Every structure is written in C-alpha cells, then in structure tokens.
Amino acid sequence: MSTHYLPEGLPAPAQEPIAQPYWEGTRANRLVVQKCNGCGKHQWGPEWICHRCHSFDLGWAEVAPRGRIYSWQRPHHPVHPALNGHGPYLVVLVELPEADNIRMVGNLLGDPMQEVTIGAEVEAVFEPHDEATPPYTLVQWRLVK
Amino acid sequence: MSERTLRGKVAIAGIGETTYYKHGQSPDAEFKLALQAIVNACRDAGVDPRDVDGFASYGGDRSDGPRLAAALGIRELRFSNMHWGGGGGGVAAAVANAGAAVHSGMANCVIAFRSLAQGQFARYGRGNQSAAVGGDDAFLAPYGLMSPAQRFAMKITRFMTEHGIRHEALRAIAMASYHHAQSNPNAVMRGRPLSEEKYDASRWIIEPFHRLFDCCQENDGAGAVLVVPADRARGLRHKPVYLLGAAQGGHHRSAAPVHNAPDYASAHFKTVARNMWEMAKLGPQDCDVVQAYENFTGGVLLSLVEHGFVDPKTANEQLVLDNLLVSGGRMPMNTSGGNLAECYMHGLEMVNEAVRQLRGTAINQVKDAKVVAVLGGPMVTPVSSLVVGTEDTL
C-alpha cells in the first residue's frame, strides 16, 4: 500500500536553489524556512529579499512543525490525469503561529470526507518520495488529537 | 496644479465582438477572432481600422499588438501594452491603459481587446502536466492544488465561513447570469436556463462552495472596444460612453507567495475599489448596473463586498435572485449573461455590455442607465475595475 496521500504521477517539486535548505530539511524530517538575519522574522515562500527590512541576508531556521488550519478545500474534480478516478481529497492552508504566522499548503491526512474546522491544531507529517529522481519529501498535516 | 484624473477625459466610441463559441468550437483561429472583434469595434465607431494607433490587452493575450498592426495595415503604431497577470484581472486595466495613452497624447485611438481560442491552445482548468514544477507551484501542485478554482477556493472558504454567508448567495449570482443570457442571442448558454434544483443537483468541483455552476465556462471568441479622447468621441456615431474612474493593482502583498497574502480572504480590490471611486467621485449607490466578473461565484461575492455593493452582514438577504435581475432588481447584475452564461471572454464582453446599457441598446436594458461599474477578475492580482457613464454624469 502506498504511503503517499495522493496517487503517483502528480508533478514533483523542482527543488530550486532558492529553496534548497527547505528541501534538505524535509528529507531529514525537519521543517526549515527562511528567517531574515536582518530583522529576525520568518517569511514564506522563499524570496531573495526580506519584505520587512529589505535585507538580502536571508538565513534559514528550523521551526516547530505545528500549526492551525487557516482555510481548506475538498477538490472533487480531477485537474490532472493522475487524479482521474481518485475521488475527493483535502487541501489545507496551515498557519504557523510559532513562525510569525507564515502559511503552508499541504494535504490533511485521514478520511478525505472528514469535517474540517478552521483554527484546528495540526502537526506536520513528513511524506518521503524516495523512489523519485531526485528523491523529495512533502510536508503533510494531521489533526493533533 | 491641475487634477490628475481620467474622469470624463476619454470615451469608448466603439464596441466589437465575434460569435461566441463553446471552448474548442471556433472555426476560426484565435488571431482571426481578434481581428474580427477589432474591425467590428472600428465599424461600430465609424473609424477606419488603419487609424487605430495602439493596442492594450491583458492575461497574456497571444494576439500581439505589432502583428495586429501589420495585419490591419495600421499607419503608425504608437502604443502597445500588456497588463501583467492571468485571466481577466486586467480587463478594466486594459481599457484604462488605452484611456491613459490617448489622454496623455501618447496615442489617439487605441483598441483594448481580448481574444481566446481554447481549442487552438490549452485550457485553463487543467493542471500543469510537467514532471516537475518550480516557483510557487513546487509548494502547491504536489498536493493537488493546480487549477484556478483551487488557487482561489480557500479564500472563499475562509471569507464565507467567517461571515456565515450561505451557498445560496452564490447560487443567486449564478442564476442571475443564466437568467439574463436566455434573451441574448449571442450567449453560449442561451436555451439552457438554470433552476435552483439544477444548481443544487450539480456536481461538486470543490467543497464547500464550488458546484459546477459556480465556475465559469471556457470559451472561444474575441471582444474589443475603441478608446478615444472625449472630444473626438463627441463627433463620432454613437453617444460617447465616458470613463469616469478606473484603477488597478492590489493591496499590501496581495500576491505574496504560497498563499501568504496578509489579508488573504479577499478579492484584492480593497485599495483598487477605493481609488476607482475616488477618481469617479461616485460610489456604489450611484450605479444603475453592475457587471461583476465571474471566474467563480465566490469571487463575485468578495468583489461586490470590496466595492461596497454588498455588506457581508446582510449578504444572505441581498444576494437573492430577484434583487439581481433587470426586471425589478435593486442591483441588476451581469445583464448580458456574464462570464458564466454569455461568454467567458475574460470580462471584455462585460465592458461591451456596459456600453450597450449606457447607449440604451442592451437586450436586457436597465431603464435610463447612466452609470455602470465593471468589476474585473477577482483574486487575480493585479486586479482592476472601472466605472463608465453617460454625458449626464460629467
């Protein structure tokens, strides 16, 4: 049985240089995001400049893999051939209060038909795609019991 | 110092469109459709197409200005302009950019247009088919977030949940467009009326707020308007339709990557609407008709709220079908059928309809219409809107 939430065949992340520490972090089950060495604030997605203080000296920092659901959707219509016949799935937007409220998109693990509540607490689950070339790891989310 | 404004300075003197088709069904190539709409707009205005000296478009239109100028034998090209952003966020901006060009003296006679042949080129509602994706998509597509509907759905979920707005409000928006399309011979959905039952029974595209009829079609066709200085418009064939206000852009970091816009549950019109009303010296209460771009009905809701037409507290009561119809509605909306039911020409068809309403020649005519607002594609930063009026409003 596949350990992946969605079927094989969806696009893989290109793992571009601007985001390399993030992708390396996920391979080690760590959530690493941009943190400005100028003002000390986190920002996401990766950018070349800090939008707050305009420093180009952007570092990276591990953050707590915890957040809360900021919004959600349950797509039914398959928008990619890999999703044909798959059925509905859950996409969540997760806010990270411990990292200046940056947000990340992922899937909410568990029953795709479960009721979803904005504000619910979630934790990251690292989903390795070891068979991919190059391998990569996605960051998924599950409800904190 | 004189006031910097486009209010009353420029006018739409001609409108043109092609036959509208379901996606992939145009017998003509996209570029030919563009040419047809442009020639029709010039004919409507009584202007020789060779006297056009500029083109403005948006959404990455593939019919580029210099090629159009060559094909039409234009004597001199003075203005070529593409507004950034996808879809119809830039529809009002293209008209305003044409207006800014003729008002500033950079050009004299500019066409704003949109042409689409989805059969000839790719469709919008399919995800990226590449093996690997970069940029923002690297953090979205692997999770199955790929289509425009999916990119915007979580804004709508959050806004509607926060304000307790029911799906029925969106149903009314969809039904208004379908209702008006039934009397429009050029509407793709003419002859296919939408009932509450049909809407409620339609399949989910995305829960919780996107049924099939909440989503726009994809279509083939083209639309164009001819923009000239106000003085010149007065000497042409039709009653001029004056640009009263226009604005484009987005609020603070509205295009922040990976869904990180600080004010997220928004159509991104908050500053744009304010700037448009300021230029027009008008407000939503002054409009006789609204044309509100539907990519998705939830986006229309956000757009109406941010332009001041709807209060989120009373949205459930305001957004009912009777209130949106030409016959008896307090806020007649999408009077030719809009993107949902006339044609998804990225809103250009709505600019044409605004002009017909002000000329008094619309099929579903709002009696004595003097001011019409056109709200461009919501959520697609940089967004844009405009308001146009008759001579009486100057």
- Stated plainly, the CATH topology of chain A is called OB fold (Dihydrolipoamide Acetyltransferase, E2P)
Unreliable spans of chain A are: none
Gyration radius from CA atoms of chain A, angstroms? 16 Å
- Number of structural domains of chain B: 1
Q: What is the general shape of chain A?
A: globular
Name the CATH homologous superfamily of chain B. Answer: Thiolase/Chalcone synthase
Describe the overall structure.
The complex is a heterodimer of chains A (145) and B (394). Chain A is mostly beta strands and 145 residues long. Chain A has a single domain (17-143), classed as OB fold (Dihydrolipoamide Acetyltransferase, E2P) (Beta Barrel). Helix content of chain A is 6%, strand content 37%. Chain A contains 1 helix and 9 strands, in the order βαββββββββ. In chain A, a hairpin with a 5-residue loop joins β2 and β3 (42-43). Chain A starts with 11 loop residues before the first strand and ends with a strand. The mean pLDDT of chain A is 97. The two termini of chain B are 21 Å apart. Chain B has helices spanning 30-45, 65-71, 91-104, 148-163, 167-181, 196-201, 230-234, 270-280, 297-306, 315-318, 321-324, 338-342, 348-359, and strands spanning 10-17, 21-22, 54-58, 79-83, 110-116, 132-133, 204-207, 210-211, 219-229, 241-249, 289-292, 371-375, 383-389. With 394 residues, chain B is of the alpha+beta class. Chain B has one domain (10-121, 216-393): 3-Layer(aba) Sandwich (Peroxisomal Thiolase, Chain A, domain 1), CATH 3.40.47.10. In chain B, strands 1, 2, 3, 4, 5, 9, 10, 11, 12 and 13 form a 10-stranded mixed β-sheet that branches. A two-stranded antiparallel ribbon of chain B has the order 7-8. The model of chain B has no long low-confidence stretch (mean pLDDT 96). In chain B, β12 (371-375) and β13 form a beta hairpin. Chain B is globular.
